[in-house]
Amino acid sequence: MRTVGFPQVFVPSPDGGRVTCAQSHAEIDLALAESGCSPEIGASLHAEFAARRAQWSFEAERLGFDRAKLGEDEAWDEEAEAVRAVFRTTATTLAGVEIKIAMMVHLCSAGSDDPKFPLPQLRSTLADARRLRRSLDALRC
């Protein structure tokens, strides 16, 4: 980023007003349509963006960014699967229920990408607590 900057261009306003930042060819086209800039300016902006994007890609490859990003994405996927596995597993002790509740508290504070969160996790933990209560009640009789 320090070496080549972001792959973006700024689409000028024909009246000298606010410029629009575009970070894709589609965004350039949209900004051009809204601003009414000439086709020559559009062609120049597309060429400038393509050059900036090529510089960005070259530098990212040189630094190993894509490999690092892929590794990061894989690690996030593994973490998400591990969390799902915890809530698919039946807790057989109060400590297991406690762990599930602690994980939900952490996920609430850290944020979860699961749009259904926390309902499936709560249902799983509630079912475990009920099962354990019934087991303990049966021992007392």
Describe the secondary structure blueprint for this structure.
Blueprint: E1 9-11, E2 20-22, H1 25-35, H2 39-63, H3 65-88, H4 94-110, H5 119-140
Helix pairs in contact: 1-2, 4-5
Structure description:
- This protein has about 140 residues and is mainly α.
- The chain folds into two domains: about 55 residues, no CATH class; about 70 residues.
- Helix content is about 70%, strand content about 5%.
- A two-stranded antiparallel sheet has the order 1-2.
- Helix 1 packs antiparallel against helix 2 and helix 4 packs antiparallel against helix 5.
- The longest helix is centred in the middle third of the chain and has 25 residues.
The H/E string reads EEHHHHH
Sheet bearing the most strands, described? 2 strands, antiparallel
Total count of helical runs of at least 4 residues: 5
Provide the gyration radius in Å: 26 Å
Provide a brief overview of the structure.
This protein is mainly α and 141 residues long. Helix content is 70%, strand content 4%. It folds into two domains: 9-63, no CATH class; 75-140.
Labels describing this entry:
4% strand, two-stranded antiparallel sheet, 2 domains, 141 residues, mainly alpha
